[in-house]
């Protein structure tokens, strides 16, 4: 055990008990002063003399067979008038008890304040409003000089996206004291400031308080007891963290993790230029506000992405007229290219199909596009999109004359079994000026070498705006629709010119059927075919009153599987899941892929009770699925609804979608049925 791992902050005290919670084996050097007890002959006190006999028995009873107490306990030390709070938990062969003074704050007033702030956060309609109110509300609760929200990008660089200084007026009728720390809004912190060990520690302990970075540390008595306090809330900051905060001019700090769906989204920092205590009730209130804001933030982002995906899907809806008279690639491209450029914020778009190049906006020359297609076709074998935002450094594009295009997003179109088509979007260079709170250098700098108010400015060139995850998903949806449209046109042309060649015509029609009705990855019905089946079932239901149900389910944490294990494992998950579910359905039921990791089950002659039973059976069945390369179990969130009079395909799917998202919000790996109010 390193020396540092036995050092503690002085605002609280630590007791180290044996595994049975009966005897004190070590304690922090400040226990006697904090609790006002005497140590006869410098010996360790008994547990009852510190906590009292009744409290000691309660700790021992509640820890039996448990790793930690379910919540904090409060007590009053006979030698002190104020109350204390303790947390107890197991650490190896010891039980650790952390003790803090518990100041009277007026619990009802604090609870009312927190509830009011939670309501305001729940009403926020966009990210900027949400985070701005969060930092102001937290600052009013804690009284720190500066409160900031730091968001991590894909490279783990942090950018301050919201901030509040104590010089600002926080909420109506409340003015905070004058702060002494500079504003960091818009500034960046390099990834080396957030090493992986620090990020992982926030996953285990989302709240970290450093009351006074300059305060002398307490140590354990007796020193010969080997106990690791690295997971202790009272643990002292590491020397390198102390130096880092001093460089920022910070003496008191409180930080709270903001956990997203795929890991650490960011951190909320509270900084003060002087020592700054934060009582346990206030810390709990801040954590509650941060958790609420994070969940609201993720919900707003999900809604925004859903609206965007719908706009892209609507940009190429295969109408009845188009199905009867399919358009060729040139007509389709000419009609929709401007819309696609706008949706994907591109200054150029190109379509390559069987050696023909169609272009709109600012794009490379046709021969360069053909060269790029040849290279991507060889290097990029899976069905997902290929993209770069730095063509000058990307091996596939560095030697090509792409003119001023720094970003490329290419989507494969399986229009032909021997040569895929490609839809490409191009973005120009976006010169970006980044302001770093500290220079992102690998060379360690001594404390206070650079004033925290002096930002280091960096101009980034040669890169385009990054291709967002939702844009890549939308491009895949568009590519599937475009593939179907082009294939329909090709088959129509063959039917006109190869009428006498029945064998070729039969093969072409089979290919059209496969492309038109089946998803190329999972080989289950695609969205177009399952919509047809739902429409047919709606007609039967209205005519004969035959009830049916729709189940919409989504693979939980699918993005994390793709990001960590690769698209090939993600594809295997979807293929295996589709086979498992389709093989477990009745002959009169149907499975279709709705898009991405979403699937639809159409259960005919099924009421809500039967549909809910089917959903629970499928959920349990999926949990048993095993895929090579995947350690964690696969789970799904399922939304269930039944047919109602005057339903359309759109309305019944919307209800199932709402139920599915409720299942995801309520913890995933569960089934949610349409609420009664929606069924009436």
Automatic annotation (TrEMBL):
> Which SUPFAM superfamilies does the UniProt entry name for this protein?
GAF domain-like (SSF55781), Nucleotide cyclase (SSF55073), PYP-like sensor domain (PAS domain) (SSF55785)
Q: Which InterPro entries match?
A: Diguanylate_Cyclase, GAF, GAF-like_dom_sf, GGDEF_dom, Nucleotide_cyclase, PAS-like_dom_sf, PAS_2, Phyto_chromo_attachment
Outline the extent of the GGDEF domain. 546-676
The UniProt entry's coiled-coil ranges are 491-518
Cofactor(s) for this UniProt protein: Mg(2+)
Q: What is its EC number?
A: 2.7.7.65
- Gene Ontology terms for molecular function: diguanylate cyclase activity; photoreceptor activity
The UniProt keywords, alphabetically, are: Chromophore, Coiled coil, Photoreceptor protein, Receptor, Sensory transduction
Query: What chemistry does it catalyse, as a reaction equation?
Result: 2 GTP = 3',3'-c-di-GMP + 2 diphosphate
- Record GO biological process: detection of visible light; regulation of DNA-templated transcription
Origin superkingdom: Bacteria
Q: What is this protein called?
A: diguanylate cyclase
Task: Name the source organism.
Answer: Vreelandella andesensis
